[in-house]
Amino acid sequence: MTFKPTKYSLMSCADGRIFEDSGWTLADPQGTAPSLVRAVYEKKEFETRDDLDGFYRYSNWLPIKRTLNNSSAPVTYKSKGLAEYLGLDNLYITFSGYNPEIGAFMQTCSFKETEAYSVCARLPEHEDRILVVASAGNTARAFAKVCSDNNIRLLLSIPEDNIHALWFDKPLNECVKIIAAPKGSDYFDAIALGDKACSSPRFLAEGGAKNIARRDGMGTTVLSAVEHIGRIPDAYFQAIGSGTGTIAVWENNLRLIEDGRFGRHKMKLYPSQNAPFTIMYDSWKAHSRALVHLSAEDARRQASVIKAKVLSNRKPPYSLAGGVYDALTDTGGDIYMVSNDELEVWKARFMELEGVDIYSAAAVAVASLEKAVKEGRVKSGDVIMLNITGGGEKLAKSHKDVVYATPDLVLDSFLPAEEIVEKVEKLF
Fold first, then answer.
1. How far apart are CA 306 and CA 273, in angstroms?
2. I need a labelling partner for 323 at 20 to 30 A (CA). Which of 210, 249, 268, 275 fits?
3. Is residue 220 part of a domain?
4. Is residue 336 within 8 Å of 272, Cβ to Cβ?
């Protein structure tokens, strides 16, 4: 069967200008202010593609050119254990991870697969350039798996301290290469390293939050929830490093309102950060669109302290048009802060109440939900979506043999771009 892509245009979040996608557009070429661009799909009704498997059931609202092998979709179910513990009547958990008991089969155990299966399917099948992705861990694992399974050339840039996150059930295809910023570096250093590699025309920057495919891939979590519940939730909880997932569900919420069959209200967005790395929490509480100052030294120190390492982006898409600040303002949301001790409590309690292990980042979201319940921000009868962005790793590793990837090169991000390009190009 030949895949027929959905038609879409692009809209600047800064001024509403509509224009066409040149293929890998990350920003409005006529824009004068920092802004995300958003996909405007020709198809306004939310309908799944039942002729397609896994993640691609949601391809009517994905900016993709093809489908790829071995995908899985998020799974939504109505909570019993956690809901009863918190006194909530309508708590729905959207689980992205590995838990065959509920039909969840994401092999990398993280909702970052939704990004990777969308971004890589936005690439033309015969793209000559090499995709470059910077990551603190889970995103790297997801892109490595998707590219390895589908023979797509990929350069991953990660902090060497996070190399333990690159585990797989089989060795990676030779089309995937890994570079690492030295020990003591953070996610921002990995981004800088990847950016310098992209000064070569042989490489293509994935684009992070600016890539509509990344956001609309992540936005399938709320599509899963609405498909299961039959309506837009009242409140949404998720831990954030960049906040891209929260932006993504806000955008799909707006599309669902335009459809009209699932409600015409906006979910209150409640993202959360792991203290002490709380740059967005601090900025929001200061009522500031601009991010508060965070030095590179302080950022690295804070990133080394938090247990949810993936929540450590010091340059998140918070301030620009269409970013986290706008999403929270538009929905009347708020940001929570969760300590290492609190997340450890909720990791254990979630396992006890829901029967599967979850990542530290997901436990941050659960802890923030408990805070919102205690504060009366959500009521017992509210329809609540809890985005569990990763889990089942212990279960998955008990079901299969595991191999760990190692960096092909360790490079300091302070090296000149020409030197980095020379070394990295030789990998391919």
1. 10
2. 275
3. yes
4. yes
